[in-house]
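User: Is it possible to get a 3D structure for a protein together with its bound compound? The compound here is molybdenum atom. I've pasted both below.
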Amino acid sequence: MKKKHIITRRAAIITGLTSLGGLLLYRGLKSAPTPTYGNILRMGDALTYSAHRALLPGQSLAKEYSRGDISSFPATGTTNPGDPSWQYYSKDYAQLQKNAFSDWRLSVEGRVAKPGSYSISDLQQFPSRTQITRHTCEEGWTAIGEWTGVPLSSLLQDAGILPSARFVNFYAYDGYADSIDMLDAFHPQTILAYGMNGRDLPLQHGAPLRLRLEKQIGYKSMKYLQRIVVSDEFVDLGDSGWAWYTGI
Ligand SMILES: Nc1nc2c(c(=O)[nH]1)N[C@H]1C(S)=C(S)[C@@H](COP(=O)(O)O)O[C@H]1N2
Ligand SMILES: [Mo]
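Assistant: Yes, that's possible. Here is the predicted structure of the complex:
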């Protein structure tokens, strides 16, 4: 049922695009600043991005569930950056882990008036948001979990985000790097989560802090956050092999 609904929506977008042809696409490209990156094979990304931004209300919410819907939750990709046998081992992370992340700080840099860094207890001073949502992994599984954290918008405002800023770039301890646009950054369900299912965020799910980006596929929800850099321009952080924009 659910799947069918998604396919129907996708189909509607495609139909919309073909029937209105270049006009709609042109409008989308003009109104949403489409990142330019990579090669021609990645143009499909830009198309999905423009179509989504042109056709769907930007701030529509992802469905939220109740406690009874919480499921078991697999962990994928990096599940411990402090493991020396892991290919993306981080010595720095291993050190932070030893002290139960008491020395961990999230650095916020770039196009902000007050660059600085935040400990987990700093982040816990902000009003928190808790949401029970469905995670969809590109590998084909989904799971429902409860996430608690600080809205990214609160943090960006606290750091004094500058009006020219257009992208938020994230860097993780396992070398993961990725970015999102401002519509996603200020989406009310975009949070930096330090809690999962009522406890501290577990190691395998990204301790001590991860992104939850509920309107995109799971790989955009970066675990093991280290640094956030706000930028005016799209920064090419390299091709992970996955689409940059993957709205659901
Ligand atoms: N830093 C980092 N973030 C990451 C990954 C990763 O390997 N490293 N994997 C991504 C993928 S593909 C998915 S599906 C989710 C998995 O989150 P989970 O392990 O909590 O289920 O994290 C995403 N964020
Ligand atoms: Mo994934």
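Residues 9-231 form a domain with the Sulfite Oxidase; Chain A, domain 2 fold (CATH 3.90.420.10). Residues 2-31 form the longest helix (30 residues).
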